[in-house]
Amino acid sequence: MENILLRNNISRLEEYFACGGYKPLKKALGLKPAEIIAEVKRSNLRGRGGAGFPAGLKWSFIPPGPDGQKYLVCNADEGEPGTFKDRELLRANPHALIEGMAIAAYAIGAAHGYIYIRGEFAAEAAHLNAAIAGARAKGFLGKNILGSGFNFELFVHRGAGAYICGEETALLESLEGFKGQPRLKPPFPALKGLFGSPTVINNVETLAAVPSIIDKGGDWYAALGTAKSGGTKLFSVSGPVARPGVYELPLGTAFSELLETHCGGMKPGKKLKAVIPGGSSTPVLTAAEAMALKLDYESLAAAGSMLGSGGVIMIDDSQCMVKLLQVLARFYHHESCGQCTPCREGCGWIEKVLNRLEEGGGTPGDIDLLYSVAEGMTGRTICALADAMAMPVMSFITKFRGEFEAHAAGKVCGK
Amino acid sequence: MPKLTIDGMNIEVPAGTTLLQAAQQLGIYIPRYCYHPKLSVAGNCRMCLVEIEKSPKLVTACSTEAAEGMAVSTAGEKVKKARRDVLEYLLINHPLDCPVCDQAGECGLQDYYMEHSLQKSRFAADDKVLRQKRRAVGPHLILDNERCILCTRCVRFCAEVTKTAELEVMERADHSFIDLKEGRALDNGYSLNIADLCPVGAFTSRDFRFKQRVWFLKKTPTICLGCATGCQIEAQHNRNAVYRLVPRPNAETNTWLCDYGRMTYKAVQAGDRLEKAMIRRGLIDIEPALREAATRLDEFKGAAAVLGSPWLSVEDNAALARLARESLKTAAYCFDHTAEQGIKDGILINKDPAPNTAGLKKVKAAAGGLSLEEFTALLAGGKVKVLVAEAKAYGLVKAAAAAAGVRLVIFALNRGDAPASAHALLPYASYFETPGTFINYQGLRRATAPAVEPPQGVKPLWAVVNKLASYSGAELHLDSPAAALKDINF
Amino acid sequence: MPYKLTDEFKEAAARICARYPRRDAALIPLLHELQKSRGFVAEEAMDELAKFLELPYARVKAAVTFYTMFNRAPAGKYHIQVCRNISCHMAGAPDLLGRLRARLSLKEGETTADGLFTLSSVECLGACGSAPVIQVNEEYFEDMTLEKLDALLEEMKHGRLKPPAL
User: Fold this and answer.
1) What is the C-alpha to C-alpha distance for residues B432 and B224, in angstroms, rounded to an integer?
2) Given an 8 Å threshold on Cβ–Cβ distance, is A177 in contact with C85?
3) Which ipTM did the prediction report?
4) What are phi and psi of A313, to 5 degrees?
5) Which of helix, strand or coil describes residue B350?
6) Do B168 and C62 touch (CB under 8 A)?
7) How far is CA A321 from the centre of its chain?
8) Which residues in chain C are contacts of A114 at CB distance < 8 A?
9) Is-contact B459 B475, C-beta < 8 A?
10) DSSP assignment of B374-438, as one string?
11) pTM to 2 decimals?
12) Pairing state between β C134-136 and B407-411
């Protein structure tokens, strides 16, 4: 399969253009916006940031018609632990994103777009700004794009260090100059988003797939994947494998193929024990469960986890699951925005109990306590960060309870 | 207009009504911290979670709009468990301050815990997040960040009501804390409303600090006399002392109460409160003082004048009018006061600092009399030898009277209000001690209600006037407030 | 001397504010600009920025204290940030952190007396495939080993920070 997104020698505008880049934009500008939305719906493209919401459907929620201000926002806040595909994409193929945004903006009637990029990606932000300047100079952005009458201004907006800004309404708050505290939903951004106007927020990878969908058609894109999950996905693989990195594969690829064929298997002496399949917020799987899986939205959901961002974290049997959960708990605790009670207090509580268990002061009751506190946070908060903390806690305890019990009995591993 | 059911009861509400508001109309109270009817919706405390049939997750009633066909449950097991859990989360970092916290007895955590939880805490007490305590954040408030449950009512009050935006939540996660600019005071004229709003003892009143346990306080509904707005308030008192004033929210006049108004009870209990009379700077019992005053008035019969006051009740002004016309038999009296009425700061404080300008007009309508210009000119002209007036009203004619050397018989509550040169200072019962009728800037007639007893021997002004007149031989029959209001048409 | 926003800042601010329909949306980009010039966001700077954007001071301070990238006090010339999240942890981040603590005699959050180094541990930097990862100022250093770390420290002591090729 030839990669759509991660291709070599395509990061510069001349290279991108030489490979047929910005022709899909020209094609799109000759279509009606409704036709473009229909094509994206046909492609079965689902949000690649983690939530997996169908992109075409999301675009169709924007009130049609030319009236009023609308915005297109790209979520480049990539903060989900284990996920690093957007960074790769921004470095290797920034114009796919820019072109994708221009097409999406035309489809929803947005004249302004922002790429919200996490503050730590300073180099990538600079790279993007240069790419945008180049695209503007060639008339692919700005006023009257390619003589179509369509205007689209695109700006890069850097974040300042907050994982929560990857949540779409927290991102909007941050873009508007506030703390990144998620908003109550409804109303949803499609009706009331950036500066109160209808807004679409999509992940980098989602938008970058759009030019090829317009170029070769929604049906073509859908056929690359499975019945319900169209296209290819960028999998970020980290952990003790021979070749960690970002791999573009059709949805539905077997996990075993990702691990053995593409990543070259585990490093010598490392035996796979556990897999976090879609970024740290997704429930952990045992090695056996993972090896039996296909990588698509439905299969992972059926296995009790999620495809999420496709951030695959391989964990070998030299790792202590209690320690790793402690590392994750500290992360969610640090990143909680603090607005709502269960998350703000629950994250701190969970980290404190895990510290006890990890350092040797824990008791057997602590394991059920952890599970109960995590359960109490689930489904009761303004955004899903509480659930993102709860899912690892509950799944680690469920699948690797023995390690927790050993710690509670005093057998700490001192890692 | 969506139709829905809440706990099996049907209701139809206008579009946009939230489940919390709809439930309220049915008499169902949903517990809440961050929601307040006069502030924007925050939805962060999660206490108001309710169940909607066919919805997998609980939703916050304060922010969810009623929709056609919704079946809402506020009393099922899922909701009860959610409330217990939210309370547990709120209490894990909350300090065990009840024994030293002023909020005890009216505390949102105490109350909801007793009603919805009674669960033992599973959190180790020595693991609590520590924050700053006992911070004086202005002349009226003390902030204790450990007790704070981060409901953000205080932040929203400052942003939306006073529009001063002093407060914000700093940092994030459970390190979050309410803060304002270093070195800046939270002193926007309405800051004590924050102590009311704060569901817990995070923001407490400096004035009230450690003075009284709230369960001992009796509550008397009354009126604030700090300005012409005439906010409806409640005097809270015990054992004949007022401890604090709080607003009684109502649709016509006020939700809040300004800081100045809150402190108006202090004068009544201040050190310079007149409990005896004074003749020429010498303290003297009231009876001999009244006889002396009556003697002076008789001595200068024909050259006596009476000034009404927008700081006195209608009854007391009416009594002064009767004194002028029936006892002193003079035409030199004035119940005329004009001051622009209306809210001057967009919130509550009135352009007119006097509480009864409108009430005074009723007395003028009944009794007639000179205009304030005519009265002032008369005083300046030297024909008046003795003036009977209330202390604050005297301030309106001070220059003319002092220049002409007029002898003064002044009714005063506090010595500090009275001119030092007064011949006679007569005490009277304040409106925390006796009922009085006042008309505010909206033309609404309201009465104060007594919360405490006046000092021994101190009587309402109309009764003092009655006595004073009788010592001059005139029987005014001012036996009650109603008697004083005999000729007044409201 | 009372703090004043520089002309360069105001020029940059004009460009940045123009990207948004409301000036106050530029708050975070402008805070980045302020931090660029002095290495941290000072109290006076927050005051001036609040006036410049016609915002309450409390809102500016809330943003500065919410986001981790804004320094309230000057950081060292080289702000070494070690990722401590799961993939970097498994790849040896604790050892890198231990080495830095020992060689610089610092705990996380502290700066060396000569003002050269500040040490922090941070959360996921989004480069997990090349774990362990550290960030120094705005540059990423990936696939770190103790040897590479020692070499990098040497370079920094001599005032050089070699950027990776993009």
Assistant:
1) 10
2) no
3) 0.96
4) -110, 115
5) strand
6) yes
7) 24
8) 19
9) no
10) HHHHHHHTT---EEEEEHHHHTTTHHHHHHHT-EEEEE-SBGGGS-TT-SEEE----TTTS--EE
11) 0.96
12) unpaired
